[in-house]
Amino acid sequence: MERNDLEKIRLEKIERMRAEGIEPYPTTAHYTHRNQEAIQAFEAAEKIEGSEPVQATLVGRIRAMRPMGKIAFAHIEDGTARIQLFFRINDIGEEMMTRLKEDYDLGDYIEASGHLFRTRTGEISLHVNAFRMLAKAVTPLPAAKDEVVDGKIVRHATLNDPEMRYRQRYADLAVNPEVREIFKIRAKTIRALQQFLDERDFIEVETPILQPIYGGAAARPFVTFHNQLKQELYLRISFELYLKRLIVGGFDRVYEIGRDFRNEGVSFKHNPEFTQIEFYMAYANYHSIMELTENMVAYVCDQVLGTRTLQFRGNSLDVTPPWRRLELRQGLIETTGIDINEHLTGESLEAAMKAKGYAFKPGSPRGKLIDGLIGDYLEPTLIQPTFLYDYPRDISPLAKSKPGDPTMTERFEGFMAGMELCNAFTELNDPLDQEQRFLEMGRDYESDDEERHPMDEDYLRAMSYGMPPMGGFGMGVDRLVMLLTNQQTIREVLLFPHLRKLED
């Protein structure tokens, strides 16, 4: 690696330390408290008159240093809190004070022992009597807020170029505590989803990521090859068909939280690799799944944020149940002036869209045209939590038809802030109908069309053993976290989003 001047200076320090018998990367760290625990222990001891000073050994990354002659101050940070270290030459000796000033830099990890006290300004600090290097940082971190330069506190701009932040997420996390908070909220969100479903007797399972036949969604898969089996495999685009097999096997309520992969475009709300939650519930229909969904999202907000009111893109969103219910057909009539029930073929719907000046790809199947109308005109109007329900059979190959109307299915999608959040339906459990749907999709869509749904004979075989009536649900966890943290792009809630390769 090519090194800049600052890195070369730090490498020289490493060489000097080792020449003097000091290992800058020791194998073991010792500590008695995490920083937040030390602060809490001191505050508890303060309340007891005559208590002994709290002795502690703390560890962390040096975030600020302020040498002042015979004394020095530093701030260190671990995963719990930032705390001040106080060094005095009378306690550590002249040699160690010199080492502190010459060998230690911002970004280094340090272990320090001493007793806790409160400074004149009221800051809880560790009065250090011994310290050592735990890890020397060769590359300086991007300047963070309120760093110290030449003994003075200077406010710097943080690492703020989005492209650089995503490529060097480790540096982004190190200097931007607000970014770390996003991913703490993400972890709490996943835990809350699990708790909600576990409390309702769902069982969490794991299904294959590599699949011989992709299915369960309308998307283009990533393709790979298994050398031993000499077989083409696909990264899954959905958990759906495997989870429904488990319902056949006798699990009445199952869910999975994990990665799906879709070889499609990247946008503020799309990433090729994303986290999804899906659950399936025997003896439920799409109405009961609606109720479960709105209660689940409200529960997550209660657990993670302590409020059911979210701020997103300047909108105040209230997730308190019940959410608005809007029939898809009616929503399209209100926003586009087109009644899809009057246009039962792609050609007819094309003509209606052309008459109103709407963009479309000529020759598209009716289902794709309807999807376009939803995404371009209806979806942006759905700001408050809304369930859009009753979808055409054309775009719902795995959903059960509505009684008395075979052209429509019992399907809904949940929307918030003009963005799709979830998709669910009363599951199709008739194997004969399902086989016919697969055949129709194969005829109506081109072989390379991402909306094409391949025939899955093993899934049909599973259905043939008897599949109970059930409701199914899928939601992008990344989008939910976007809403909870008021982030405008999915990249902000992914630790390592996919990016284009840098040009040489």
If you had to describe this structure to a student in words, what would you say it looks like?
By secondary structure, the protein is α+β, with helices and mostly antiparallel strands. The chain folds into two domains: 5-157, OB fold (Dihydrolipoamide Acetyltransferase, E2P), CATH 2.40.50.140; 178-323 and 384-493, BirA Bifunctional Protein, domain 2. The chain has helices at 5-19, 35-46, 89-92, 94-103, 162-167, 169-175, 177-198, 240-248, 286-304, 328-336, 346-355, 366-378, 431-444, 457-464, 477-485, and strands spanning 55-68, 71-77, 82-88, 109-118, 124-135, 147-149, 152-154, 203-204, 210-211, 223-226, 231-235, 253-261, 273-282, 309-312, 315-318, 324-327, 386-392, 401-402, 405-416, 419-426, 470-476.
Summarize the structure.
By secondary structure, the chain is of the alpha+beta class.
| Percent helix range | 25-40%
What is the fold named in CATH at topology level of the largest domain? BirA Bifunctional Protein, domain 2
Q: What value does the Rg take, in angstroms?
A: 29 Å
Structural domain tally:
2
CATH architecture of the largest domain: 2-Layer Sandwich
Contiguous low-pLDDT stretches (5 residues minimum) are none
CATH first level of the largest domain: which class? Alpha Beta
Q: What's the mean pLDDT score?
A: 92
Structural class: alpha+beta
* SS elements, strand count: 21
In what range is the share of β-strand residues? 25-35%
Shape: elongated
CATH-assigned homologous superfamily of the largest domain: Bira Bifunctional Protein, Domain 2
Query: Strand count, sense and closure of the main sheet?
Result: 9 strands, mixed
Q: How many separate helices?
A: 15
